[in-house]
Amino acid sequence: MSEILLCYPEVKSENDSGKKVTEYFNKYWLMLSEAESAALYPEKGMQKEEMKWRQWADDWLVHLVSPNVYRTTGEALASFDYIVREGKFGTYEGFFAKYVGAAAMFIISKRLKSRYNLQDDVRQDLYKAVNDWVTAIGKKKKFMGGDNPNLADLAVFGVLRVMEGLQAFDDMMENTKVKPWYRRMERAALNHEGRK
């Protein structure tokens, strides 16, 4: 493991606001031989495209989740009701988690909205991001990886899946073009499909 970690050097710096951050420059790069790379990415630019969208999922898409899931007090309560129900909390723990958690996340989501300069209607940012993703895949491919999902497909699917069962997810499915791709990804994940 220590040899693998050498391939991902840690670089510490300060961001624009003076906060200390740690970055790993190779974190989206797969350490493959030329033969493995040619087999996995038969078309020129596929590997860079995959890396670009994986980073986009981490740097942008994931930050749209909380502001959309906890957009209003009603949605925050509904989200925590779902979390408490699925998490099988006890009566008192569930009550505390639902109301305190919903209030805290509602406040945090407003800070995130400001930090990432989201529109007043944060759904519009989510819709645009998801439609940008679908447009990048194009009409000729089933997935970003072509006929099979690649790591970018998996990253985006993972981010969107956390909203499943919530109003934000239902709105996204109804108001964007992501539904066909998302349903294909569900089947692919269930069947353990993907680029070998």
Features:
Glutathione S-transferase Yfyf (Class Pi), Chain A, domain 2, mainly alpha, two-stranded antiparallel ribbon, Prostaglandin E synthase 2-like, 196 residues, globular, 2 strands, single chain
Question: How is this structure best described in words?
Answer:
- InterPro entries: Glutathione-S-Trfase_C-like, Glutathione-S-Trfase_C_sf, PGES2_C.
- It comes from Labrus bergylta (ballan wrasse).
- This is Prostaglandin E synthase 2-like.
- One of its GO terms (molecular function) is prostaglandin-E synthase activity.
- By secondary structure, the chain is mostly helical.
- It has one domain: Up-down Bundle (Glutathione S-transferase Yfyf (Class Pi), Chain A, domain 2).
- Helices cover 61% and strands 5% of the residues.
- It contains 10 helices and 2 strands.
- The protein has a two-stranded antiparallel ribbon with strand order 1-2.
- Helix 3 packs parallel to helix 8, helix 5 packs across helix 6 and helix 7 packs across helix 9.
- The relative contact order is 0.11.
